[in-house]
Amino acid sequence: MGAGNPEHITVQAVNALNRASVFFVPSKGAEKSDLAALRRRIIERFVEGTDYRVVGFDNPVRDSSNESYRSGVADWHDAVEGVYEQLIVGELGEEECGAFLAWGDPSLYDSILRILEKIRCKGRLDLDYEVVPGISSVQALAAAHKIPLNRIGESIMLTTGRKLAEGFPDNADSVVVMLDGQMAFKTVDEDVEIYWGAYVGTEDEILVSGRLGDVLEEIERVRQEARARKGWIMDTYLLQKPERR
Ligand SMILES: C[S@@+](CC[C@H](N)C(=O)[O-])C[C@H]1O[C@@H](n2cnc3c(N)ncnc32)[C@H](O)[C@@H]1O
User: Fold this and answer.
1) Residue 30 is part of which domain span?
2) Residue-wise pLDDT tens digits, 154-197
3) 177 and 216 together in one domain
4) What is the pLDDT at residue 68?
5) Helices H / strands E in the chain, number of each
6) What is the residue with the minimal CA distance to atom 27 of ligand 1?
7) Looking at the predicted structure, is the pLDDT value of residue 28 above 70?
8) 193 Cα to the center of ligand 1, angstroms
9) Per the database record, which ranges form the Tetrapyrrole methylase domain (predicted)?
10) Considering its fold, how many domains does the chain have in total?
11) Residue 63 sits in the same domain as residue 171
């Protein structure tokens, strides 16, 4: 579904939306209600006619008190799998097609593909599914800042705030960081360049870029203000080591 701008929807996605008769839309909390509203806007704008149903559901939340991150995620995925399976069994007729509108691109820090495959492999349902690629927040960030992600001939690493907090990777000079609730960029050498964006692609988009040491406080301030104003935040950023000459 793209990363927040309804115009991220591709022609392939529009065609897929028009094959579905049921749309599964997660709905809970301030963040979820904004994101659910966007999903509904996309459905209303791109699906022809009104011969479909929108089914809301509560996505289970990961137990962040679990000391093991991996076992917390495994339990959470089991719970999500149960919810998805129930939705498919309970809401779809034998020949009907349902749609989950995955945020950004479904291959990137999203478990929906793992979960659907687990349900299919269990074999209890005669389930088939199709994956439609989308515009991820990473592409949206690069476009908003009008920058290429990679240095000429160099690699890009995609990682999370949790991993960045363990140290700047030593095998990449361009690092894209997602899922960073802790502002892990504060732990990084202040001479790197940062290209930061929140709510990228939406009407609330905020962009800040520059030498990390020069813009760190500004990012921290606008991030806190935006989060307090909207009740949730989604931000992503690219860090680049100074260019070698
Ligand atoms: C669970 S991941 C899903 C990523 C998604 N599959 C994608 O392709 O962008 C959520 C993270 O993506 C990033 N993100 C998603 N949408 C964003 C947006 N519109 N602006 C900035 N960051 C975004 C944030 O880092 C957020 O914590």
Assistant:
1) 6-122
2) 999 999 999 999 999 988 899 999 999 999 999 999 999 999 99
3) yes
4) 80
5) 7, 8
6) 179
7) no
8) 20
9) 2-215
10) 2
11) no
